[in-house]
Amino acid sequence: MKIIPANNFCLLSLPAAILLLLWPSMLRAQDSITLDYCYRQAEATYPLRKQMDMLQNSNTLKVQNLNRNYLPQFNVNGSASLQSEVTKVSIVLPKGLPALNMPTLSKDWYKLTLDLNQVIYDGQATQYQKQVEVSNLSADQKSIEIEMYKLKDRVNQIYFSILLLNQNEILLKSNRERIEVKDREVLSSIRNGSGLEMNETLLQAEMIRIDQQLTETRLDRSAAYQMLAELISHPVPETTVLAIPRVISPDMVFDDKRPENELFNIQESKISLMQHMVTTRWNPKVFAFGQAGYGRPGLNMLDDEFKPWWMFGAKVTWNPWNWNQNKNEKQMLSIQGDLLKNQQETFNKNLKISYQKDISEVMKVRELLSQDDQIIALRIKISRAASSQLDNGVIPASDYIARLNEETQSKLNKEIHKIQLIKAQLSYLFTLGKL
Description:
Blueprint: E1 19-21, E2 32-33, H1 35-45, H2 51-67, E3 73-82, E4 108-121, H3 125-191, H4 197-232, E5 241-242, E6 246-248, H5 259-279, E7 285-296, E8 307-317, H6 325-391, H7 397-431
Parallel strand pairs: 2-5
Antiparallel strand pairs: 1-6, 3-4, 4-7, 7-8
Helix pairs in contact: 1-3, 2-3, 3-4, 3-5, 3-7, 5-6, 6-7
């Protein structure tokens, strides 16, 4: 795989600022998957994604209920009472005039009413409540988006661990094959009486040690494949080839695109809305009302018969003084806004620290990779000389094994550095929200 050097990095105009050129370029069959495919599968099948529609449906119902604040409200009320005394009218007339017979009211009263209340003006309280609910929806959905974005980092960790384990297995097998060849040569020399049995024993022990490493590698890789399959909710057999991605990233300039900052902006906007909503409590409110009823007595208190009645009207309510409760609530919201800004500053501070760490890692791995070929060439030269010396009985097998392991490790280091460079570049893009 060809790694794009630092001076060949270019600034792209792609929406995500990243192009994963696949190796092979497309998902061809069940025996090969790509990192981009894992991203898409993990995001599409992660259970948290279902909450997006749930939150939207819940918000729609909340806004519908708030809209019903403008609809007339009906209440049916009924009552029956027995009282110890009722209103009596006593008029003393001059002598000679006939007495007045005033009606006597019953002490048991009955009332059944239908009451209507209609909001005419609520001081914009409902309007701001709806805006707050929309802001709540945006914040909740953005929080889910943040968690979904973090999935990419989890995919990276598992995906690249498999790639590293694969490279380790390839080199371990190659190392074992070379030791097997050397073991046969030593056995042949022993039969001819020119070799030492200790050398053959050392080679056998080294092959067993490599077998242990291969077993450990296979088990670790098997676990990683299972974790990847669970994360993307799709079977990933251990025979599946993981394509090594090539990364074309933008220039290493701090350009924050993290969704967390979008969430901070939404939350700041929500606090501003809530401050306006507190202000609406000072606004006067206008209502229309109506009542239709049947009972005894009716509106005419001197009529002791069951009668129907009705009335309509309007009323205004205004509370110009609430002992500074509104003022205190605004101050509390202002403090929440300051806390939110502090959280954002802390997040961006940590983000810049991670950004510097990512740049340092990329530069370090590039530097190591630039020296790997030189180290490998020297290690090959040394191990070949050690092989010849072992054949001639100049050194024991343990020295040859040590030189061979050093050569193998140098080759493994190069493959590890290749994969680490890709992973470091992706980590850099993830940190800036561009992955």
